[in-house]
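User: Can you fold this complex?
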Amino acid sequence: MSNAKAVEVYDASNICPDDLPWIPYFGVAHFKLLKANPVTGQTITLLKVPAGTQLPTHFHPGTVIVYTVKGSWRYMENDWVSKAGDVVYEPAGSKHTPESVGDEEVITLNIVEATLDYLNENGEIIARDNWESFLQKYHDHCAAEGISPIDVTKF
Amino acid sequence: MSNAKAVEVYDASNICPDDLPWIPYFGVAHFKLLKANPVTGQTITLLKVPAGTQLPTHFHPGTVIVYTVKGSWRYMENDWVSKAGDVVYEPAGSKHTPESVGDEEVITLNIVEATLDYLNENGEIIARDNWESFLQKYHDHCAAEGISPIDVTKF
Amino acid sequence: MSNAKAVEVYDASNICPDDLPWIPYFGVAHFKLLKANPVTGQTITLLKVPAGTQLPTHFHPGTVIVYTVKGSWRYMENDWVSKAGDVVYEPAGSKHTPESVGDEEVITLNIVEATLDYLNENGEIIARDNWESFLQKYHDHCAAEGISPIDVTKF
Amino acid sequence: MSNAKAVEVYDASNICPDDLPWIPYFGVAHFKLLKANPVTGQTITLLKVPAGTQLPTHFHPGTVIVYTVKGSWRYMENDWVSKAGDVVYEPAGSKHTPESVGDEEVITLNIVEATLDYLNENGEIIARDNWESFLQKYHDHCAAEGISPIDVTKF
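Assistant: Here's the predicted assembly.
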């Protein structure tokens, strides 16, 4: 009678970042895509940035939670420095320019609800990343490196 | 090389409630399950309640948005009445007892983020509905009525 | 000892759209801002569009839920028509061009998680609306019309 | 003319856990409340559990994201172990019994959308924690210890 999917509850799963490759990002930085939700647009990523690096100014239409895993960083627009173990909460609609602080490489865990919209000096959007573009970069990287991608959209 | 799902963007879809059955709920009421997200737990339902009806007191761990499609209703704990065309916003952690107001049947559209936890007089949880139980009730109803269920968990 | 806010639970509240003005939007359309969450970026709006009207192509970084209150409409990119009583679910990252269908004015209720990004023919973002710009338009309209605005960011 | 709040955009802020106290939890464990959103119910907490400890079985009506900061742990119901640097994603409606693995203390960062509902052997809910109860425990702890609480609900 029924050809629809039966009621199936998804279970908690553990993501081990060691199983996922670092993917070049903006030349000097790298990211790992840990999870992407194609329905809500949420992404969970790791970002690795060398000491002495500034990343492009960007805008977030949705919320962002950042956990600083290693090193120290700040937004040029704010007066705080986030160091290893700190958590940054970004309400929807925030805009900022990240830079690493100090001599250590920076690694952050980022839970992003929508997109990162990269802006030029006039505030115009010149590039954008979201679950789809991160996933495409991951697949492209795997194809180029001969790696079998994990399905990070699976729950 | 790759055995993982390619990058696939889900598109907007229209849900026509006429395609879905009214399912008995608490004897006198009925609901239609329009959409259920097994990852986030969000459900979109219609609820139909006869005039002169009070539903059990319940608690919501997450947020709720209600659009009143038809009739008027209120929570016994609040001093407002929601009438057709109004929107009710319920922050996470709200608790209340709904009842229909006036002589007209009430229909509401409900966007619920987590569960409805039904409480006894001592505030103890005696029953709970969420995406999973609503979906089970929908499948059970379809099986009993000989209806082929639609996959309301598909995006 | 404590100078921080005590634990305070927000209660469910009813929003009556009759208490809020229609604000001109893209010349021919109008919107009402019912609720805006400055932390998550979620907005709840009503949109009113005359028969025979096409609105600009736009992209949504986050999810959208639309309830069709009156009339019929479609996205030019999709093969369905949404009529009064239907619900449209838009996963994050959807892009489309709305137009009213038939001879009747269209009114929709829209629950938007992030922004609407209006695109030109090359897919470049030329304008954007979110909780902040809708709220600014509401305040500007109130100032121009001599209306006292309601605080739609209050929960 | 206007007595409503002007349009005000919240900015990103950094939370330094060193500024917040460890609060006793289930006797042997401790938590820090880093952020609580009284509208959405989202909480961000740190949880510290000694080696060789099992915590009570609980159910989550909403989603949970866990980042393992230190040590290793597992759910007795699952076949994976989460170690420092791993991320656990829990879809809405998951149920499990956490225990620390190995000889090291465990610290996790937890982003929880709704509640933790503690269950007895019959699956009945016997206790519950959410933004409100965590916030109350934080304020109670501050009062008992003579600490001035920070407003963790502020964005």
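The helical segments of chain A are 131-145. Residues 26-145 of chain A form a domain with the Jelly Rolls fold (CATH 2.60.120.10).
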